[in-house]
């Protein structure tokens, strides 16, 4: 399988783009004409630059407003094409993209367009150049790949073929099954992009909001399955017009791009028999069975304070690492590690971010397979130093600074606690509060990191995403999206902020980067948990009375229930499936916090309608000078 990406997809000048694209492991690039025109080097030098970067030029594009022009424009258009052929020969590329005409003076007619392409094919053949025709979703006469194919078919010239672009087909909701009948060798290149499902003008959507396959809402896998059925063997080439990507890190976006293509090819190969391109042979997406532990990087002083905080929440000190300054606190199936080492990754994380939950360990079916798949998707493996007899827990770096560890039941990793930890004498006061598992992990990140994290999780693990929603912070909207396993064993909420006045934005600033901002623990009886916590000296986040009056009215709650909620500072939500009750801790310092939840019935959400009230209460809790606009 050959992978390629259009230079227009990433930031930087042409040299920077090529470096990042090559480093991410792509085989080729589409040279977008503007990137070429604005770079100060001859076509020959640019061609050499591309090849020196270990890349080939898969396509030169776009050539606009060609077919169906009336004279004298028609002749001029052919002259213009010849000039571009000159450039292409200097660059060292043999494939040109012609996108469908958008000019108001263009004449329609399938045969007229086919005649123009036949003549262009003749001229191209003299130079061993091939020309592919792409239907833009907003083309004046041609805006559907089926019509573009009909023109190519009637042009009936070996140097004229079709170019498919998933965006144009899928954004117009054209049936992808129509692709299957096209002979694969008549498709000269396939461009891939996803996009969010937003109701807007297609040109605007395409030029600003395309994203990597898997990051958006379009059925790109179905599209690619249909392409694979044609016998197409050419490159899978990304063409992503996106303002955030073009303003972001070329390196990160290139890695995401390559990751999206490997994952796409893998999904296609697993769902469509006998695909034409050789898809990567990698382990399947890992099923996550649960969160095995969450590890905080911290200092000795902070660790004492954090441990006290957790004791009040019903956690017991349960074990100590045999050779490292790592303490295990446990309640039910929840394991929390406090790492106060003065060397190594945890320590560098502490130095940069202060006390924070820098690592999550997931229980999967096969930990080594999980790492192997992640590596094939461009993730960085991580290895910690271990003492003799201790386990090396397979791990990878997350998108930001954090780590994801893996354990499984099938190897010695299933005995992690017995092998690496010594039990400690139980001395803690405080009673257990009925918290039995991690319900979800709340990650906060800059808004432009959200697509990268989304792709990271969806490509490595067998998770689904929920639709993007806006969380209402009194200081602005925060974008939020969830990835979760079908059975709820792993749920991760991701909040993307770009405004420092929001609670999430404030956290990113205080923490010097993205991290886990909250952990939600599940209880089967939140009122009993609230009682136990109270006895331990826990003081929950205070929710104003107005909220309870509103909830009582909104859901028609009986007043006794409303009073119970109010007295315990428990938030309430309900949908067709069930109910959700939430209790919040105050923030630890200015940073993370804990949430306690009870899910009743089949409730699958996260209490988004309660977010404004919870956030306002949290802001009141923070130091006034630390929180402008609170
Ligand atoms: O937005 C455009 O003009 C444009 C140009 C070339 C393409 O391949 C495309 O998909 C869109
Ligand atoms: Mg295109």
UniProtKB/TrEMBL annotation:
Gene3D superfamilies: 2,3-Dihydroxybiphenyl 1,2-Dioxygenase, domain 1, Divalent-metal-dependent TIM barrel enzymes. It holds the Pfam family Glyoxalase_5. InterPro entries: 4OHPhenylPyrv_dOase_N, DSD, Glyas_Bleomycin-R_OHBP_Dase, Glyas_Fos-R_dOase_dom, IolE/XylAMocC-like, VOC_core, Xyl_isomerase-like_sf, Xyl_isomerase-like_TIM-brl. Its cofactor is a divalent metal cation. A divalent metal cation binds at residues 134, 165, 191, 239. CDD domains: HPPD_N_like. Residues 290-409, 437-586 form the VOC domain. It is an enzyme of class 4 (lyase). It catalyses: 3-dehydroshikimate = 3,4-dihydroxybenzoate + H2O. Mg(2+) binds at residues 440, 518, 595. Keywords: Lyase, Metal-binding. Its EC number is 4.2.1.118. GO terms for molecular function: 3-dehydroshikimate dehydratase activity; metal ion binding. Pathway: Aromatic compound metabolism; 3,4-dihydroxybenzoate biosynthesis. It comes from the Bacteria. PROSITE patterns: VOC (PS51819). One of its GO terms (biological process) is 3,4-dihydroxybenzoate biosynthetic process. Catalyzes the conversion of 3-dehydroshikimate to protocatechuate (3,4-dihydroxybenzoate), a common intermediate of quinate and shikimate degradation pathways. Belongs to the bacterial two-domain DSD family. This is 3-dehydroshikimate dehydratase. It comes from Rhizobium johnstonii (strain DSM 114642 / LMG 32736 / 3841).
């Amino acid at each position: 399988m050959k992978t390629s990406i259009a230079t227009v997809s990433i930031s930087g000048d042409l040299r920077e783009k090529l470096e990042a694209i090559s480093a991410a492991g792509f085989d080729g690039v589409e040279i977008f004409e503007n990137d070429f025109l604005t770079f100060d080097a001859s076509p020959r030098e640019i061609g050499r630059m591309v090849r020196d970067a270990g890349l080939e030029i898969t396509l030169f594009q776009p050539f606009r407003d060609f077919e169906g022009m009336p004279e004298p424009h028609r002749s001029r258009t052919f002259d213009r094409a010849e000039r571009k052929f000159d450039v292409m020969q200097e660059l060292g590329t043999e494939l040109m993209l012609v996108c469908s005409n958008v000019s108001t003076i263009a004449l329609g007619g399938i045969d007229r367009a086919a005649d123009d392409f036949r003549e262009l094919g003749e001229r191209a053949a003299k130079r061993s150049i091939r020309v592919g025709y792409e239907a833009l979703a907003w083309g004046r006469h041609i805006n559907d790949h089926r019509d573009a194919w009909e023109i190519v078919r009637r042009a009936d010239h070996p140097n004229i073929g079709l170019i498919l672009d998933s965006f144009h087909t899928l954004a117009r909701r054209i049936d992808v099954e129509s692709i299957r009948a096209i002979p694969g060798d008549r498709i000269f290149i396939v461009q891939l992009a996803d996009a969010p499902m937003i109701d807007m003008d297609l040109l605007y959507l395409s030029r600003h909001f395309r994203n990597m396959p898997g990051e958006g809402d379009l059925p790109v896998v179905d599209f690619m399955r249909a392409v694979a059925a044609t016998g197409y063997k050419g490159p899978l080439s990304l063409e992503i017009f996106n303002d955030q990507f073009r303003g972001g890190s070329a390196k990160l976006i290139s890695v995401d791009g390559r990751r999206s293509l490997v994952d796409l090819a893998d999904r296609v190969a697993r769902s469509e028999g006998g695909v034409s391109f050789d898809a990567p042979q990698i382990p399947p997406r890992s099923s996550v069975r649960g969160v095995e532990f969450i590890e905080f990087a911290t200092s000795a002083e902070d660790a004492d304070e954090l441990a006290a905080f957790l004791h009040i929440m019903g956690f017991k000190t349960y074990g100590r690492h045999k050779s490292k300054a790592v303490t295990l606190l446990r309640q039910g199936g929840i394991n929390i590690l406090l790492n106060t080492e003065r060397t190594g990754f945890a320590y560098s994380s502490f130095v940069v971010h202060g006390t924070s939950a820098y690592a999550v360990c997931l229980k999967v079916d096969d930990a080594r397979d999980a790492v192997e798949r992640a590596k094939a998707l461009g993730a960085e493996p991580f290895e910690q130093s271990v003492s003799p007899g201790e386990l090396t827990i397979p791990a990878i770096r997350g998108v930001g600074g954090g780590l994801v560890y893996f354990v499984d039941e099938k190897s010695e990793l299933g005995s992690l606690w017995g092998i690496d930890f010594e039990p400690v004498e139980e001395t803690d006061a405080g009673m257990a509060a009925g918290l039995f598992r991690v319900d979800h992990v709340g990650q906060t990140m800059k808004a432009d990191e959200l697509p990268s994290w989304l792709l990271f999780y969806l490509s490595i693990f067998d998770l689904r995403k929920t639709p993007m929603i806006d969380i209402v912070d009194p200081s602005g909207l925060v974008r939020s999206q969830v990835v979760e396993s079908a059975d709820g064993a792993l749920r991760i909420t991701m909040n993307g902020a770009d405004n420092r006045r929001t609670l999430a934005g404030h956290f990113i600033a205080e923490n010097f980067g993205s991290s886990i901002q909250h952990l939600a623990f599940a209880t089967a009886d939140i009122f009993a948990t609230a009682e136990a916590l109270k006895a331990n000296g826990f003081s929950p986040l205070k929710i104003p009375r107005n909220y309870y009056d509103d909830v009582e009215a909104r859901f028609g709650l009986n007043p006794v229930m409303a009073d119970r909620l109010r007295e315990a500072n428990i938030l309430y939500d309900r949908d067709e499936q069930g109910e959700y009750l939430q209790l919040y801790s105050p923030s630890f310092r200015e940073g993370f916090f804990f949430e306690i939840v009870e899910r009743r019935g089949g409730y699958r959400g996260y209490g988004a309608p309660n977010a404004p009230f919870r956030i306002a209460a949290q802001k009141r809790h923070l130091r006034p000078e630390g929180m402008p606009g609170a």
